[in-house]
């Protein structure tokens, strides 16, 4: 039997992703690095800036001609190109005469539709989130921002109209931009809503036309959007109206309006499910507004979040929002105080899924705009001393409540230091979070250790979490089965080839902890290896039973999504072993090298 005949293995790389509050979205292959051969994936609370907001956020809006393109000399990727543009006219700002539009190229491209305002160029809805192809000598309306270093670059918000074809000074898009600029230059943030309503009333008095209706719909779209870019007062007023049960003059735009508008995305949503909803309950609308206050620049919203925190019956979701808000305002100590005094003492009362979401909010608050060694919590000595312990307690609870034995904590190493044997529980938490340093430690330990002659007695030494004095290999072996990658696989095979006590210890660890990240092909090779003892085959059978049991939730998800039953890889192996089928894959070669 060969597993490849049943299910192909798809490797999904795990990577740390930085959160960009100013953009409020994350791309699987960074949006700012979008190119013809890459794709961008939007998730979380992303709201497409309205055209009015786009005009407001741009440091410059220009009509420019594409001159040429070239590969950046400092970039090793041959697909990365920059289009050089010459500014013909500036509608806003004072950009340079010539600038480079990064992550774009010259080529054949469809023109923008000059009759619409409610969608961006089709290329932005074809997997890349932004237009990347321009015609040589073509003229375009481009939105630019200036970096802190003074460099001019594209504004780059997913699915936004930042790179449309220029159709003349009297075109719908250019005249709309000019009318929005006029309102923004004359009126303050809240008064601009009145200005837009007056403009809408003027348009409604005109003779009906596609052009008139496009402007009216565009203004309504802006008034309905509760994005992170809206004024604080507009968002807080919306929340309090919803709280009082009052109807909104401009109901919230549904999240489906912020998704990729393409046939491919519609098909994906229809087949897989999970697409953005077309409507929200009142509670969901309130949560939506809170997320916008968290992800935008809204320090004046503090009284609202203080009031939410003071409520005696505050929900886990609202506590998470409060923690995220404090984190977004740089109040990490306050966020930790809430976690320690309001969350941890009653975490057992929360639904495990709510507790997990709350912990995610806490991690985002502690991480801030930083990543890895630059995460915000590291910059404050008091927070740095408290946060790893709080994360450990959360991980311990979630691991016990949701996935026994799988408590995951990417901050466990902060408590471990360099002594991975001091606390096996913390070490396994780090392994479950796929921390590379703990895996490197495990491989080094097993390389240095002499094979054990006899099976260890589990728990004989009384040490924490079952580690035994007889064989120190047990902990690094338990780390390995939680890991990823070819080096990990090679180390597993070496342990298997030691036979005896180590082989049994490895099989027990597989049953205890291996999951969806583990390669079933290795287990199949183990089963096909000659010379397995009866006890080893029985132990592998027990391990497969445990593995198949843990895969039950994944099978149920597959059934709910696709309406059919998909057996797990472990179930296929388990049934083959019970039936006595012969495994035809290459056995593990344990001959001395």
Biggest sheet, open or closed, and with what strands and sense? 6 strands, antiparallel
pLDDT averaged residue by residue? 83
Q: So what's the overall shape?
A: globular
Q: If you compute it from the alpha carbons, what radius of gyration comes out, rounded to the nearest whole angstrom?
A: 29 Å
In CATH, the architecture of the largest domain is Beta Barrel
Structural class: alpha+beta
Strand content: 5-15%
Low-confidence stretches: 3-38, 453-468, 557-563
Count up the domains: 3
What are the secondary-structure elements, in order, as H or E? HEEEEEEEEHHHHHHHHHHHHHHHHHHHHH
CATH class of the largest domain: Mainly Beta
How far is the first residue's CA from the last residue's CA? 27 Å
- How many beta-strand segments? 8
User: What fold name goes in the CATH topology slot of the largest domain?
Assistant: OB fold (Dihydrolipoamide Acetyltransferase, E2P)
Instruction: Give the helix proportion (percent range).
Output: 40-55%
Description:
The chain has 593 residues and is α+β, with helices and mostly antiparallel strands. The strands form two sheets. Strands 1, 2, 3, 6, 7 and 8 form a six-stranded antiparallel β-sheet that branches. A two-stranded parallel ribbon has the order 4-5. The longest helix has 21 residues, at 381-401. The two termini are 27 Å apart. The chain contains 22 helices and eight strands. It is globular and about 85 Å long. A hairpin with a 5-residue loop joins strand 6 and strand 7. The chain folds into three domains: 31-224, OB fold (Dihydrolipoamide Acetyltransferase, E2P), CATH 2.40.50.120; 232-401, no CATH class; 447-578, no CATH class. The protein has helices at 51-57, 172-186, 191-204, 210-224, 232-244, 263-272, 282-295, 302-310, 316-328, 332-343, 352-367, 381-401, 412-416, 424-432, 436-448, 474-480, 486-498, 500-513, 520-528, 534-550, 552-562, 569-578; strands at 60-71, 81-92, 98-101, 105-106, 133-134, 139-146, 152-154, 163-165.
């Amino acid at each position: 039997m060969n597993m490849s005949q049943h299910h192909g293995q798809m490797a999904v790389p795990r990577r740390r992703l930085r959160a960009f509050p100013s953009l409020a979205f994350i791309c699987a292959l960074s949006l700012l690095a979008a190119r013809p051969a890459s794709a961008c994936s939007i998730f979380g609370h992303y709201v497409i800036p309205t055209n009015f907001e786009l005009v407001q956020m741009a440091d410059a809006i220009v009509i420019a001609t594409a001159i040429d393109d070239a590969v950046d000399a400092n970039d090793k990727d041959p697909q990365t190109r920059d289009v050089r543009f010459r500014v013909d006219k500036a509608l806003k700002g004072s950009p340079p005469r010539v600038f480079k539009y990064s992550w774009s190229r010259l080529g054949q491209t469809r023109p923008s539709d000059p009759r619409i305002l409610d969608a961006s160029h089709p290329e932005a809805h074809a997997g890349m989130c932004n237009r990347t192809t321009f015609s040589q000598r073509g003229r375009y309306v481009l939105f630019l921002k200036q970096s802190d270093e003074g460099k001019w670059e594209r504004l780059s918000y997913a699915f936004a109209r930042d790179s449309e074809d220029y159709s003349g000074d009297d075109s719908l898009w250019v005249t709309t931009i000019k009318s929005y600029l006029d309102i923004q230059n004359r009126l303050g943030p809240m008064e601009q809503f009145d200005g837009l309503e007056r403009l809408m009333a003027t348009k409604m008095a005109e003779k009906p036309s596609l052009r008139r209706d496009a402007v009216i719909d565009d203004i309504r779209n802006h008034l309905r959007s509760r994005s992170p870019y809206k004024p604080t007062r507009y968002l807080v007023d919306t929340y309090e109206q919803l709280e009082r049960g009052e109807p909104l003059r401009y109901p919230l735009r549904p999240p489906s309006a912020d998704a990729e508008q393409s046939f491919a995305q519609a098909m994906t949503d229809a087949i897989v499910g999970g697409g953005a909803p077309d409507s929200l309950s009142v509670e969901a609308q309130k949560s939506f507004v809170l997320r916008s206050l968290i992800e935008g620049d809204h320090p004046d919203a503090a009284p609202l979040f203080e009031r939410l925190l003071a409520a005696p019956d505050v929900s886990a979701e609202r506590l998470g929002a409060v923690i995220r808000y404090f984190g977004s305002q740089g109040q990490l100590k306050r966020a930790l105080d809430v976690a320690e005094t309001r969350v941890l003492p009653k975490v057992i009362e929360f639904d495990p899924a709510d507790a997990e979401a709350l912990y995610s909010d806490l991690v985002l608050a502690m991480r801030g705009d930083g990543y890895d060694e630059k995460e915000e919590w590291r910059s404050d000595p008091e927070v740095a001393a408290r946060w790893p312990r709080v994360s450990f307690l959360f991980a311990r609870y979630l691991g016990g409540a949701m996935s026994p034995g799988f408590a995951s904590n990417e901050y466990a190493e902060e408590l471990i230091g360099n002594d991975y044997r001091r606390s096996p529980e913390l070490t396994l938490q780090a392994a479950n979070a796929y921390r590379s340093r703990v895996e490197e430690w495990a491989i080094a330990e097993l390389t240095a250790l002499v094979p054990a002659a006899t099976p260890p007695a589990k728990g004989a030494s009384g040490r924490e979490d079952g580690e035994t004095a007889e064989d120190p290999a047990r902990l690094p072996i338990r780390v390995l089965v939680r890991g990823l990658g070819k080096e990990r696989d090679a180390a597993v095979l070496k342990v298997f080839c030691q036979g005896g006590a180590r082989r049994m210890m490895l099989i027990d660890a597989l049953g205890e902890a291996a999951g969806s990240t583990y390669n079933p092909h290795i287990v199949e090779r183990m089963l096909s290896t000659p010379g397995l003892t009866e006890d080893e085959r029985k132990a592998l059978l027990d391990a497969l039973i445990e593995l198949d049991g843990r895969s039950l939730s994944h099978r149920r998800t597959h059934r709910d999504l696709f309406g059919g039953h998909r057996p797990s890889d472990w179930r296929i192996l388990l049934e083959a072993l019970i039936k006595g089928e012969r495994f035809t894959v290459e056995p593990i070669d344990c001959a001395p090298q």
